[in-house]
Every structure is written in structure tokens, then in C-alpha cells.
Amino acid sequence: MLKIVGVTGSVSSPSRTRSVVEATLARVGDAPDVEQTLLDIAELLPWLAIRCRDEAAPPVIRALDAIEKADLLIVGTPVYKGSYTGMLKHLIDLLNYPALLKTPVGLIAVGGSDRHALVIEHELRPLFGFFGAKTLPTGIFLSDKTIEGGRIIDEAANARLDHLVSEAVHELDLVRLRKAKATTS
């Protein structure tokens, strides 16, 4: 079974970011051998006032384990003051360092204006690069005005998301092949 994990960095519930991550997970993981998990920072807030992983409550441990065992991550965050949310960073700080090595990661950011469009390249890609993760080439920045009722209404943004989805599906196919080869060896 392949494991796809979506992580939403919004502290609000419901959120535009969550709706985009959920829709992306549904499109990428539409196969019988895929298990999807959605982790929402807003739901983990009561347990995130901790200094280190040793202090983590079971919901946070389950979230960290899911991220560390994922075959593919889809990470979405709202953009505040030019960066991802502090709570998303705090959760990521609790991960075991080598756990994301070579894990494919799709990056999505939602912000109030296009001034935040470089958050993918300047903030998120370096964060996951630190862990040795394989960030997908297409990162998606969506301004608030491109999302209505939880759906992306902009054709160009939908086309970019289509591209991200195809890259993610390709990475899952590679993982599937590696796992099949490992079981026959």
C-alpha cells in the first residue's frame, strides 16, 4: 500500500489551503493501492505547545509517524508575512532528520496577493531540501482570489495544479516500481 500524506499548515478551520490540499490528494491518490491521510495543523493545535518530540501527545506522534512513513507528501500552507505558518514549521521541526530523505513533496501555498508568489522557492523548497526530500518541480502558489467555495476558479492555476498532479502520480509510479522490485528480490 502506498501512503500519501497531505499536510495543511493553516491554523483556521475550514481553510482554503485545506480544500486545495484535499482536492490534490483526491486527484493524486485515486488508485486502489493508495492510502490517503490528511493532517491539519488546526486539528493538532491543542497538542503543539511542546518543546520537543519527547513531549508529544499521541495525536502529534501519529501525525509525525504518518509524515515520516509517507511515500509522497502534499504540503500546503497559507502565507503570512512572506512565509509559511509558524505552526507548520514547528511540526516540521519535530520530525526525525533523515526520515524525509528522497521523499517526493508537492508544495502548495495560498496567499492574499501575488507578492507572496516566491514563497515556494524561497521558503518551502529550502525547508524540505534541508531534509533531503525531493520537492516536485512544479510548486503551486494561489492567490486568495483564485479560490472560491473551496475550488480553484482560475484556468491557469488549474493547469499548474494539473502539472503538479501529473508529477506526483509519476513519483508514486516510481515508488510503486521500487517497492515491487524490492519484494521480488
Helix-strand layout with pairing:
Layout: E1 2-8, H1 16-28, E2 34-40, H2 41-44, H3 58-68, E3 72-78, H4 86-93, E4 104-111, H5 119-130, E5 134-135, E6 140-143, E7 147-148, E8 151-152, H6 155-184
Parallel strand pairs: 1-2, 1-3, 3-4, 4-5, 4-6
Antiparallel strand pairs: 7-8
Can I get a quick summary?
The chain is α/β, with parallel strands linked by helices and 185 residues long. Helices cover 42% and strands 21% of the residues.
Describe the 3D structure.
The chain is α/β, with parallel strands linked by helices. It has a single domain (2-184), classed as Flavodoxin domain (Rossmann fold, 3-Layer(aba) Sandwich). Helices cover 42% and strands 21% of the residues. The chain has helices spanning 16-28, 41-44, 58-68, 86-93, 119-130, 155-184, and strands at residues 2-8, 34-40, 72-78, 104-111, 134-135, 140-143, 147-148, 151-152. The strands form 2 sheets. Strands 1, 2, 3, 4, 5 and 6 form a 6-stranded parallel sheet that branches. Strands 7-8 form a two-stranded antiparallel sheet. A hairpin with a 2-residue loop joins strand 7 and strand 8 (151-152). It is globular, with a radius of gyration of 16 Å. The mean pLDDT is 94.
